[in-house]
Amino acid sequence: MSTILDDLLEFVAEATTPFHAVSAMSLRLKAAGFQSWDGLSEYDFTPGQGYFVTRNDSSIIAFRVGDQPLSQGARLVGAHTDSPNLSVKPNPLKLRHGVAQLAVDVYGGALLNPWFDRDLSLAGRLSFVTLEGQLKSELIDFKRPIAVVPSLAIHLDREANSQRSINPQRDILPLLMGVDDDTTLDFKALLATELGQQHPEYEGIEVLDFELSFYDTQAPALTGFNRDFIASARLDNLLSCYVGLSALIDAISTQWSFLICTDHEEVGSASTAGALGPMLTDVLKALSLDDRAERAARNRSLMMSVDNAHAIHPNFSDKHDENHGPLLNHGPVIKINRNQRYATSGEGAALTRLLAERAGVPVQTFVVRTDLGCGSTIGPITAAETGIPTIDIGVPTLAMHSIRELAGAKDPDFLKQLLVAFYNRVA
To answer: Does the global pTM surpass 0.70?
Structure first.
């Protein structure tokens, strides 16, 4: 197993929510010598030094300062920290038929069937009042199975294997615990107790609100007879976040290099912490001498938007255009859509092919079938918001948006080599 796979699996297991992803990335950046910056303070940035800034605890921009002014341009890699999931509603408790359940919203385009009969845990961010009366937030992760969404037995639904559909309001409420007829529960009190156990300094506090998501407790793993595949939740798009992070840390470029990992891509990116928000432009403005220099930086920069691509499914090969079916373990995919669902231009694709050739990395191409709709990424959004030419690429993946996705074990290394070459301006 390569070093990148070891830490990739560990990272994805840690990053159970976008908040935890940013926390895990921050720790790795600090270990690599990057310094935290609040994005506002005057700072004496040192050439060659790395820095990072976060927003909403769920988005992060890391960068290494170049030898030349930023107005000479930068290389940027973008990804997103969020993944489809079941998100807990504000007043979630339902006590009925001897069990306590939690009502959930479906965040993003989740594939719902795989959420049944899984050992689920809960993680996210709590907001509370400290014993001193201060409003504060802290991350929480139960890290153990605490809930399950049981399937309806086939005896009660004989057409389950042919016609079952899922009503998200009714069918996917996780069971939290057994209860008696006279049981009373306070969900926020349960959260406060758990917070006090995980962070003893907050024992006895009052939880005011929360942002919590369920996740599958099954650990990421290498699978397949020869360990050819990575099976894990949240590969879309934590795989890209981690590989981009690893490439930024290892790149030896003397140029300005950025990694931008934003939240809320799965729901359109329209938030303060999303790609439609001002985070990237705020950072570029703060790092530039004036407005003219900031415009020059954007005009002379180039970005790779890195998000997973649809590998050809051997059981459903007709879902792909016959000349554009990416294979697992055959390298990163250049994603092209002439209707601008992806931002790749012909020039961008050519540069990517040249980078890959010089780095000794195989690359593939994905174009969606003409009679199917095409998904999108932060690529077109960032290009439109900043004017920075953008190329959409990604690792081929199966079961995208499932609770457990599948990627090739070789592809993260291929992707890292390509991104290091991009940062180092090999082409």
So the answer is: yes
